[in-house]
Amino acid sequence: MKLYTALFFLCPIFCLAQTPTQTIRGTVKDAVNNQTLIGASVKVVDQNIAATTDSEGSFRLEAVEVGRQQLNISYLGYESIILPVLVESGKEVVLNIELNASQMGLDTVVVKSPSLGVVHPLSTQTITIEETFRYPATFYDPARMMTLYPGVANVNNQGNAISVRGNSPNFNQWRLEGVEIVNPNHTPNAGTFSDRITQSAGGVNILSAQLLDYSSFLTSAYPAQYGNALGGILDMKLRKGNDEQHEFVGQIGLIGIDVAAEGPISKKSKASYLANYRYSTIGLLSDLGVEVGDEDISFQDFSLNLSFPTKKAGDFTLFGTWGASDNVFITDRDSTLWEESKDRFDIIFDSRTVIAGGTHSIRVGENGFWKTSLAFSELESNRTSTFVLTESLTSSDQQKNQKTSLHTYYSNQISGQSNLRVGVTATNHNFSVQIEPEAGLADVNVDESGILLQPYMSWQTQFSNGLDLNLGLTYSYFDLSESNAIEPRLALNYRLKSNQSISLTYGLHSQTQIPELYEPRLCFVGGGCDRSLLGFSRSHHLALGYQKQFSSTTTLNVEAYYQYLFNIPVSTFAANISAINFLEVDRFYDLENGGDGRNIGVEINFQKILTDNYYILTNATVFDSRFNLDNPFSSGLDTRWNSNYIFNFTGGKEWKKQKETQQRIFGVNLNVAYLGGFREQSINLAFSRSEERTIFRGSQFTQNQADYFKTDLRLYLKRNKAKYNTTLALDIQNVTNQQNVAFNYYDVIQEEVVTKYQLGLIPILTWRIEW
Q1: Which of the residues 75, 354, 553, 560 has the least number of beta carbons within 10 Å of its own beta carbon?
Q2: For the chain (length 771 residues), average pLDDT per consecutive 10?
Q3: Is 701 left (phi over 0), alpha (psi -120 to 50) or beta?
Q4: Rounded to two decimals, what is the model's pTM?
Q5: What distance in Å separates the CA atoms of residue 382 and residue 399, rounded to the nearest whole number?
Q6: Among 409, 416, 562, 405, which residue's Cα sits nearest to residue 472?
Q7: What distance in Å separates the CA atoms of residue 156 and residue 130, rounded to the nearest whole number?
């Protein structure tokens, strides 16, 4: 009887299923000076698990149940935060948490990832990798993730080029670890009208999501440390490997096959490694002789991030990425099978990318912090088109773009309310472009180099009346064109109540031109050219916003903005030809800095982060984008990217089930996007037939494309077992198979204007395991 009684009481412990658990650990530091915060409280909400940080600012939470959890982090004199985390078996959660000082007694706020460390309340989004793996049909690409946010439109979903607030994709900038880099994408001709190389986008990001930590996306009026952009800036950060145990990831899907590993380099230090290799699945099928579409597309990449923290000399990192991609179209030699103009040509495209660099950060005194980032990046692309009937080369593109970028800054916490940041960025641009377009169009031949120098400073402070202020000043000098500019920056945030605030930001910004536009001007018959090259394109950007926080997980943002662009390159012969409308450049234009434009709009964004098993991200944007103005407020002409309105809804729901010794999570995620159509140039059919190529009626974008509509779906099943977790996911892009217009062109074979469409329904099945 005693045995049965004992078993009765012990059965709830041994007989019932036990939820797998995992460790959450990390550090808590000051967001400005990187000072470790000793004694900070870290608690798992809804579980009786808590810890305080030790003398190194470190904490450890053991036996945390897998699944969606929330951490409450607090420290006296700092803003308390709620941080949602996904806990999975087989992989520790390692966090580097940054807190902002506050003497105002603010209520709890939401932080999804480390902050920028400056007051910048508007036009900034933080994209986490967990969201990249959860949101539907993003191809695990942070660039495609940006299209879910207000004011952002995908130019053509065959690539990840985006227009931000009506600006050209060429006005955007890519950064890695705080420094400017070349276009970090495979197949950088993807999604273009002329199938030519672009400087701003491609088919898929070279940096696999396995390696990334979080990305900061800024859309206007950037802080002083950001420059050389007029549109959006995507600043990607690499994740450090686990410094205590070895962990592995395997993933296979339509996009690619990934293998990743991370772990400690030595048991005697906190040094760690993180490495990932990826090969495109479509490329593998092509190598095996399986036809996938009419083009053979392949890519592969390898990325590595090494971390070396020291006790006295600071923290060091070394990182590197190599990527290669190919896009080959070999037409059928039987001309009776040709159906469109493209079928007359063999088109071969390839690109190679290298990125290598490192960072160093160190505490200076009690309140100072110094960080330096250095990176070399290079993108080399080649494209040839051969007319198969005569075996003659009809067009050729060869481009090499190199950037060697340095960013170093010192920040000091002057007091609990104020901090100062002083720094400089220096980027050596080295590029060569040789474009031989179709017959009848002028060649482009560029071989130039120049250094862009940008010293800056910013001062941030908090006032007792609830006002936060950030003042900044940047100076830009580019020695190639001998251009210089002084750029003031301002950000104000005033708290109306504990959960409401209004914000104002202003920035004067400058940007160098894409390499194709640095063709020497005014060449003379007897030889020699005028070396007067294009100067900066510039813009004033002003934004006013209102934010209301309904709860610790739900916020509403309303933002109105006005951007005036000036010194934009325009044709010396036709002012309607403006760089404001360029994406790829396939011919020579004689340009001068005489154009302007303006973007004005209102954005509304509502977000509830994933808590209580569901999330919502929905936004609406109404805007107007114009160029060739009589004055900054005149109507002018429609830009190519003036779609007038953007609507996005993204939401998802999860169901959790505990079964035996494993946990299952089933998720359903939906994205609906509705955008106004972009503008096109009208095609002159009669002239096109006589010239046997596309001839436009003038240079104005007067023709409206049809509105864009797309629905994406993502279903996933996560399984957490004791030692590993798996995810089986199905992404369906464009569930309704909507035919969205990409562009129109004159087709020589059909002798008609033909419409090309963007991607239709595409199912992407992915399986992932972590252990």
Answers
A1: 560
A2: 46 55 90 85 89 91 89 86 87 87 56 46 78 88 90 92 95 96 92 82 89 88 93 93 94 90 90 94 65 77 95 94 93 89 91 96 91 97 91 89 97 85 96 82 84 96 86 96 95 89 95 87 54 86 93 90 95 85 83 93 94 93 94 86 96 89 91 95 90 84 92 95 92 94 92 91 92 93
A3: beta
A4: 0.90
A5: 6
A6: 409
A7: 25
